[in-house]
Give the backbone structure.
Amino acid sequence: MKYYDKLIFELSREGRSGYSLPENKFGHCLKELPKALRRPAAPELPKVSEIDVVRHYTNLSQMNFGVDTGFYPLGSCTMKYNPKINEEIAALPGFNGLHPLQPEATVAGAKAVYEGMDKALAAITGMAGFTFMPCAGAHGELTGLMIIREYHRRRGDTARTKIIVPDSAHGTNPASAAVCGLEVVEVKSNANGLVDVEALKPLLGPEVAGIMMTNPNTLGLFEKDIKEIAALVHECGGLLYYDGANMNPLLGVVRPGDMGFDVMHLNLHKTFSTPHGGGGPGSGPVGVAKHLVDILPDVKVSGFNGNFGVILRAYAYILMLGRENVKLAGKYATLSANYIKESLKDCYKLPIPSVCKHEFVYDGLIDDGASKAPDGHGATTLDVAKRLLDFGFHAPTIYFPLLFHQALMIEPTETESKETLDDFIEVMRKIAAEAAENPMILRDAPHCTPIRRPDETTAARNPILKYQDSICE
């Protein structure tokens, strides 16, 4: 029996137990919970032995993929290795036992971490100050937009209700703007994958609160017209918001503050190497330029500063690298991305051939093998991603950004060796050859995983969120 083939409830057998406690010999000394706090009936927990529990969850844990198990080139996510010394520091008793409601006098060490991180991030980004309340990147986006809205409100300029978002932006950008009550106006990219300045000009006016950008953008391209864009937006009275999801390649090279951005968030769990994925944890501190610092205390998005453990790990990472080596991280990430891009451009369509930063986008295979497929339909980007799993690599981001029909977005990081990159390149070339010669190999992939191709659409639309006997019948 494979322990991951069944739910823990399906392993349940009447009369089994995972523990045995001695009988109470202290009689009246045992305090019972008040009736009001007790369940009316015993919880419906599975009846399993300890060995069944251990094997079940150990096998499940081995099905997970992470940066500790293999190469994780997930575009726009910066899945870099997390140094274990960061974990040791976060586990120190003086840190991991903190409670947010402790007296202030007992948390001087934690306060010093926040203060040190504030100064470090300000130096790296060119911002004047940060708030650490936001618990994730999107939470940071919302916070930054609230700061922009409050800035205009204080000036009595309540007509500014529109936010400009490039068509290549992360999906959270328009979502965060909508939650903040702002109207999203899309600006198109030009043929080079950059914001079209001429298309931007007619969108500017007295109703514009600002523009949300990430630089480099989601195609991994540096927005070389950023100074002109900043001047145009500021001239019309708007502010510039920097989505820090793509900050990794800029470390020590250029600062958002120097590019003209007024507000930004950082994904500490991406750029500064703390564990993330699967919904958390995260941290999205928001930094502002000098003229917005006085607004920071008045924008409350949490009762406490967010995710201290993540902030602590990121601070340890920054201190460990130091000023000199932080500068190398972005450069090595850029070198890794361009190395893969150039090595595979004869197998995969490269819609924008210019030098990229931390990530780049292919638009499917050059030869998808359609002429050799029984139904005339060749291998797709999804098939490439599924086939990669057979070789022990996590798939890159697929079908995003939406600018390309068969988008395959690849982001190696500075923590990967040349040997790992070469192995990935070799496998990608092998997959391209399979697609051209026998595309059905890809279309039936993966072949070596516990499950093949789950129906993700049905799972999303009709999720089963709790165990029911009927699902096993």
In short: The first helix runs from residue 50 to 61. Strands lie at 129-131, 162-166, 183-187, 208-213, 239-244, 263-266, 286-288, 360-363, 397-398, 407-410.
